[in-house]
Design goal:
Blueprint: E1 2-4, E2 11-16, E3 22-28, H1 31-46, H2 49-61, H3 66-75, H4 82-100, H5 110-122, H6 127-147, H7 175-184, H8 187-198
Antiparallel strand pairs: 1-2, 2-3
Helix pairs in contact: 3-4, 4-6, 5-6, 7-8
């Protein structure tokens, strides 16, 4: 696409760059020179497979809605065992999809990610869950960034203060303490003690 700038004798060329974004160059004295430059751009794109693949992937994944990309990304997590898969599915269903289902993959930035954390804090989501949800979002965006050979001009996670989960030190009761719990507490406490013992949370 081309045109003359108003009030000047120069020619302006507009064309999609390797990332599929509209680019403009001006200052060409004649249309022939502008055409020559356009031909050079075309040759650069067709003879650089790296840029071409990047452009094709950005055109495919950039406009894709997050729920579609999450489905594709989730299917690629074949290395996970059943328990981590259930945990992942829960985080996607209850946190990532409600926040980002219709958002375009190529529109994530610092403000979007930071707002996600702020919303979890406002909704009273526990720090452990906040941390896990953020870690999964980080993995998804990193995957998209690598897949598209740098989808984002700027890292959407750079500068974001991640939720910090700092669990307190767990104390495992001794066999004597377990026996005391069984006789000292009510039925609920006895059940908890039996469950702890049955799950191996003791040293006997």
């Amino acid at each position: 696409m081309r045109g003359r700038q108003a009030g000047t004798a120069s020619t302006t060329e507009r064309y999609p760059n390797a990332a599929g974004r509209q680019t403009e160059e001006s200052g060409f004295a004649t249309q022939d020179k502008a055409k020559t430059r356009l031909a050079e751009v075309y040759q650069e794109r067709t003879h650089n497979p790296h840029d071409q693949r990047r452009a094709e992937r950005i055109q495919k994944y950039g406009p894709m809605q997050s729920h579609e990309y999450l489905t594709e990304w989730r299917a690629s997590q074949r290395h996970l065992s059943p328990a981590p898969v259930r945990h992942l599915d829960s985080l996607i269903e209850h946190h990532l999809l409600p926040a980002f289902a219709s958002r375009r993959v190529g529109t994530f930035d610092f403000e979007v990610v930071d707002a996600f954390i702020v919303t979890m804090e406002r909704n009273g989501v526990g720090l452990a869950t906040q941390s896990n949800a953020f870690d999964k979002l980080w993995a998804v965006l990193l995957d998209a960034h690598r897949l598209c050979l740098c989808l984002y001009d700027e890292n959407p996670l750079e500068g974001v203060v991640a939720p910090r989960y700092d669990p307190k030190r767990a104390v495992i009761p001794s066999p004597d303490q377990l026996r005391d719990l069984r006789v000292a507490g009510d039925e609920v406490l006895q059940l908890v003690a039996d469950l702890m013992s049955g799950c191996g949370l003791h040293r006997c």
